[in-house]
Design a protein that fits this description.
By secondary structure, this protein is of the alpha+beta class. It has one domain: 2-Layer Sandwich (Ribosomal Protein S5, domain 2). The chain contains three helices and four strands. It has a four-stranded mixed beta sheet with strand order 1-2-4-3, with helices on both faces. The longest helix is centred in the last third of the chain and has 23 residues. The protein binds two RNA strands through helix 1 and helix 2.
Length: about 120
RNA sequence: AGAGGCAGGCAGGCGGCCGCUCCCCGCGCGAGCGGGGGGAGGAAAGUCCGAGCUCCGCAGGGCAGGGUGAUCCCUAACGGGGACCGCCCCGGCCGGUAACGGCCGGGCCAGGGACAGUGCCACAGAGAACAUACCGCCGAACGGGGUCCGCGAGCGCCACGGACACGGCGAACGCGGCCUCCGUGGCAAGGGUGAAAAGGCGAGGUAAGAGCUCACCGCUCCCGCCGCGAGGCGGGGGAUCCGGAAAACCCCACCCGGAGAAAGACCAAAUAGGAGGACGACUCCGCCGGCGGCGGGGCGACUCGCCAUCGGGCCGGAUAAGGGCUGCCCGUCCGACGUCCUCGGGUAGGUCGUUCGAGUCGCGUGGAAACGCGCGUCCCAGACGAAUGGCCGCCGCCCGCAAGGGAACAAAACUCGGCUUAUCGCCUGCCUCUCCUU
RNA sequence: GCGGCCGUGGUGGAGCCAGCAACACGUCUCCUUCCCAAGGAGAAGAUCGCGGGUGCGAACCCCGCCGGCCGCU
């Protein structure tokens, strides 16, 4: 399997899985994205994306979803293994591909720093 | 060449890297890997109509409710489409003093019924739907007043006279007449109001007028011809008494059972016990209403709205209440608790439904067109937290001298047929106008 | 997927079986007061969401859009 693959096993598919991350996971956010994270006891990370009907046109919802997915897929080095992620866009009209990529890397980096600080007090 | 209108079509192309989904082939015990192929739209949209498909309902009778509306045709069907008719609007031409009429072209129309009924037509105006009489017109008919004229028997005065006869003037009365005024009356032509004034216009007629009469037009009925038909043309008769609005209620004709792929079918954990029938018992269960939930505004007291009938509690009420018969009524059936017997059903999850169809393209053929028929050809998304994307290069289009920038509206969710709406730019055909050249 | 409701001055809201578009708060001017508030008098402020249609006349009736809100499964 290729390094940048995105098979079905790397996605969140059930409502229960989303609810688990929302209830028990931690969240990191900036002006463009919100990321919820939770350990999942699996060898790989999984991604779920939530875009509400507030983004009115289906074309825009699909595009944002694809940007977030590409950012996740093209940067496996930034994604910790065995973690479920749920990503939501904020301020959707001004979002671009470059901003989505930068924001996701930044938030995952912030999560890694927070865990390291908590792990070695 | 430019501008505008109408009709139709396209929806940038090629390549590389990474990635997704489905199908086929091969390898592998398997996760999967390799190769090949398919992979958003003209509107996929809004969900405004019509169908297919699926389940539910359907003893009977009645009443509601919704939709459509000239005619002929197309279609599986439609509230869709084509053609045609009629009204209206616009432009041009012709006739006419004008009102108006005729012809041609284009556009538009939800276009059955207003003597089946109920209601509506504000303001203005005299009068607004079994009409009306403000200004006005008339003076024929009836009654009355006035001036004038004529006549009448008398009266008074004057004049005359011997007498008879005869004359002039005056006032009142009576009768008649012309004119005029008033009342009763006749009229609806004209003015004025209004969106609309109870056929239009012309002539005769009349006191003045009026379909009162007549010609033409409009209306309606009958007949003839043309057309499948709505209707058109011509002739004759009648009345010209009956406005508008049914996108007010309504009437007539025709159509409509309900829900919708979260439809539905099958397989099927864990947990919990359910359902049906028979028999017995009869006031605790069940039922209804309220205390409710959500949202907007306000600092707040408060205020303005929307929604539901799932479970528990409290208060009050009615008792055969209630429920089913997919809106309601009649009618009809069921109806609590206990015992016994019988039987499996359903949730999570998965599979199917699920993509070959009123299909695409080409040729021929019928038709004025919508569209139909015949033959050949092709297989063209099938997902379900939901696939078409990201990055890059070259070419093409638009803006700009250039650097550079721009390229719409918008993404399938069971499938079709329409309608409506959004849309940068380009191409093709036809028509109109302007300019240039020959 | 199915179904329903609402768009009216700055704000909240009547009118919606057609006939000059109420009302309250707010705004402005004047009076009152030393000043403010309260009170009194007066004034301004509306493409009735948009586009068509019917009709003499449309916020109202009909059709098509746009925007917002809610419910069921």
């Amino acid at each position: 399997m290729s390094l940048f693959a995105y098979p079905k096993s790397a996605r969140l598919l059930r409502r229960r899985e989303f609810d688990r991350v929302f209830k028990a996971g931690g969240s990191w956010k900036d002006g463009d994205l919100v990321v919820y994270c939770l350990q999942n006891d699996l060898p790989q990370a999984r991604l779920g994306i939530v875009i509400g009907r507030k983004v009115k046109r289906a074309v825009d919802r699909n595009r944002i979803k694809r940007w977030i997915r590409e950012a996740f897929r093209l940067h496996p080095e930034a994604v910790p293994p065995g973690v479920d992620l749920v990503v939501l866009p904020r301020n959707a009209p001004s979002l671009t591909w470059a901003r989505a990529e930068r924001s996701l890397l930044k938030l995952l980096g912030a999560r890694a720093r927070d865990l390291a600080r908590r792990g070695t007090p």
